[in-house]
UniProtKB/TrEMBL annotation:
Record's protein name: ATP-dependent Clp protease proteolytic subunit
GO biological process terms, semicolon-separated: protein quality control for misfolded or incompletely synthesized proteins
Superkingdom classification of source: Eukaryota
Organism annotation: Paulinella longichromatophora
Family (UniProt): Belongs to the peptidase S14 family.
Length: 225
């Protein structure tokens, strides 16, 4: 069983918290570097696709490119040591299921996870929704976990279609392909039939972490001490 307790190695993070400016000057890049040194990747944003949406939901950051780069970097560093992805993300939609990104963002991360030789553990720390739930389920079997008060949600890929009738048909076809891919991935890692996955994803399906264990999305719930 993976030990998710606080790391007590000699390597420590010394952050001065004497003033508000000390906190503000500790940048996200500094924090990411500290986590990477412990082979931890934190997915704490939605997977937005276009620049304008990224500015609203992820401070302009291309989360997908960053995660893939981090995964490949850690694989290059040591392809035997586990990588842990902490997930607190609504996936390719916002919290209200409005589309803000294309599912290909999540598929690219998923394919990279499966490409690596290094085992990838997954851990939900707040919310996993839609394609983020898909990534959560794709972790190393036995090493997929959640905190007890997290929310784990199954739902369909959504997108808005517009344009000429031909353009709309193309967009609808692509959306159906994305749904099919997502359902197949969930079926593989959860161990349920495609028919059941389709039925459960047809509506927004909320699960507690304990229900997610029974469903097969994760393997355990890690309670605090």
């Amino acid at each position: 069983m993976t030990d998710y307790s606080r790391n007590t190695r000699s390597h420590t993070c010394s952050v001065r918290l004497n003033t508000a400016s000390d906190v503000l000057t500790k940048t996200m890049s500094d924090l990411a570097s500290i986590l990477i040194s412990e082979r931890i990747i934190y997915l704490g944003m939605a997977l937005a696709s276009d620049d304008e949406t990224r500015q609203s939901f992820s401070g302009g950051m291309n989360v997908t490119q960053l995660m893939i780069a981090q995964l490949l970097c850690l694989e290059y560093d040591d392809d035997d040591a586990p990588i842990t992805i902490y997930i607190n993300s609504s996936g390719s939609t916002d919290i209200n299921s409005n589309a803000i990104g294309h599912e290909n963002e999540a598929f690219a991360i998923y394919d990279t996870m499966r490409y690596l030789k290094a085992p990838v553990n997954t851990f939900c720390v707040g919310i996993a929704m839609g394609t983020a739930t898909m990534l959560l389920s794709a972790g190393q079997v036995g090493k997929r976990a959640s905190l007890p008060n997290a929310s784990i949600i199954l739902n369909q890929p959504y997108n808005y279609v517009a344009g000429s009738s031909t353009e709309i048909n193309i967009q609808v076809e692509q959306l159906l392909i994305s749904r099919s891919i997502m359902h197949e991935i969930l079926s593989i890692h959860i161990g349920k039939s495609l028919q059941q996955i389709r039925a459960d994803c047809n509506r927004i399906h909320h699960l507690t972490p304990y229900q997610a264990v029974q469903y097969g999305i994760i393997d355990s719930v890690i309670a605090g001490t």
